[in-house]
Amino acid sequence: MNKVILMGRLTRNPDVRYAQRNNSQESTCIARYTLAVNRRFHREGEQDADFINCVAFGRQGEFAEKYLKQGTKIVIAGRIQTGSYTNRDGVKVYTTDVVVEE
To answer: Cys bridge to 11: 2, 16, 34, 56, which one at CB 3.0-4.6 A?
Structure first.
Protein backbone atom coordinates (compact mmCIF):
# COMPACT_ATOMS: atom_id res chain seq x y z
CA MET A 1 0.00 0.00 0.00
CA ASN A 2 1.34 3.43 -0.96
CA LYS A 3 -0.35 6.03 1.26
CA VAL A 4 1.00 9.20 2.87
CA ILE A 5 -0.72 11.81 5.05
CA LEU A 6 1.02 15.16 5.60
CA MET A 7 0.24 18.35 7.48
CA GLY A 8 2.21 21.48 6.74
CA ARG A 9 2.27 24.99 5.32
CA LEU A 10 2.69 26.00 1.69
CA THR A 11 6.08 27.58 1.04
CA ARG A 12 4.74 29.53 -1.97
CA ASN A 13 1.58 29.96 -4.00
CA PRO A 14 0.70 26.89 -6.11
CA ASP A 15 2.13 26.80 -9.64
CA VAL A 16 -0.96 26.03 -11.75
CA ARG A 17 -1.19 25.14 -15.42
CA TYR A 18 -3.63 23.36 -17.69
CA ALA A 19 -2.67 20.48 -19.99
CA GLN A 20 -4.66 19.13 -22.94
CA ARG A 21 -5.86 15.55 -22.70
CA ASN A 22 -5.07 13.15 -25.55
CA ASN A 23 -6.85 14.37 -28.72
CA SER A 24 -9.53 16.14 -26.68
CA GLN A 25 -10.81 19.65 -26.15
CA GLU A 26 -10.78 19.11 -22.38
CA SER A 27 -7.87 20.31 -20.28
CA THR A 28 -6.71 19.02 -16.91
CA CYS A 29 -5.59 21.30 -14.10
CA ILE A 30 -2.14 20.54 -12.67
CA ALA A 31 -1.09 22.33 -9.47
CA ARG A 32 2.38 21.98 -7.96
CA TYR A 33 3.36 23.24 -4.53
CA THR A 34 5.78 22.53 -1.71
CA LEU A 35 4.73 21.76 1.86
CA ALA A 36 6.97 22.60 4.80
CA VAL A 37 6.31 19.77 7.27
CA ASN A 38 7.66 20.32 10.77
CA ARG A 39 9.61 17.53 12.37
CA ARG A 40 8.36 16.33 15.71
CA PHE A 41 11.86 16.16 17.19
CA HIS A 42 15.05 17.83 16.07
CA ARG A 43 18.66 17.75 17.09
CA GLU A 44 20.75 20.83 17.62
CA GLY A 45 21.92 22.22 14.28
CA GLU A 46 19.45 20.27 12.12
CA GLN A 47 16.65 21.82 10.11
CA ASP A 48 13.23 21.80 11.76
CA ALA A 49 11.17 21.00 8.66
CA ASP A 50 11.14 18.79 5.59
CA PHE A 51 10.09 20.29 2.27
CA ILE A 52 7.82 17.94 0.32
CA ASN A 53 6.96 18.48 -3.36
CA CYS A 54 3.26 17.88 -4.08
CA VAL A 55 1.30 17.68 -7.32
CA ALA A 56 -2.51 17.78 -7.59
CA PHE A 57 -4.49 16.93 -10.73
CA GLY A 58 -8.05 17.73 -11.81
CA ARG A 59 -10.43 18.83 -9.06
CA GLN A 60 -7.70 18.79 -6.41
CA GLY A 61 -5.61 21.08 -8.63
CA GLU A 62 -8.54 23.45 -9.15
CA PHE A 63 -9.11 23.52 -5.37
CA ALA A 64 -5.45 24.43 -4.84
CA GLU A 65 -5.68 27.19 -7.46
CA LYS A 66 -8.78 28.69 -5.85
CA TYR A 67 -8.13 28.35 -2.10
CA LEU A 68 -4.44 27.77 -1.36
CA LYS A 69 -1.75 30.43 -1.01
CA GLN A 70 1.64 30.81 0.63
CA GLY A 71 1.48 30.11 4.38
CA THR A 72 -1.81 28.19 4.29
CA LYS A 73 -1.79 25.19 6.65
CA ILE A 74 -3.30 22.08 5.07
CA VAL A 75 -3.57 18.32 5.49
CA ILE A 76 -3.25 16.15 2.39
CA ALA A 77 -3.47 12.44 1.69
CA GLY A 78 -1.92 10.87 -1.36
CA ARG A 79 0.72 8.52 -2.69
CA ILE A 80 4.45 8.81 -3.24
CA GLN A 81 5.60 8.72 -6.86
CA THR A 82 9.18 8.64 -8.07
CA GLY A 83 10.51 9.46 -11.50
CA SER A 84 13.52 10.64 -13.43
CA TYR A 85 14.46 12.80 -16.40
CA THR A 86 17.60 13.99 -18.14
CA ASN A 87 18.22 17.72 -17.76
CA ARG A 88 19.72 20.08 -20.37
CA ASP A 89 23.25 19.26 -19.22
CA GLY A 90 22.67 15.55 -19.86
CA VAL A 91 22.55 14.69 -16.16
CA LYS A 92 19.90 12.25 -14.95
CA VAL A 93 17.74 13.84 -12.22
CA TYR A 94 15.60 11.76 -9.85
CA THR A 95 12.34 13.14 -8.45
CA THR A 96 10.01 12.25 -5.61
CA ASP A 97 6.53 13.81 -5.41
CA VAL A 98 3.38 13.25 -3.40
CA VAL A 99 0.41 12.91 -5.76
CA VAL A 100 -2.50 14.47 -3.86
CA GLU A 101 -5.65 12.35 -3.72
CA GLU A 102 -7.52 14.10 -0.89
So the answer is: 34
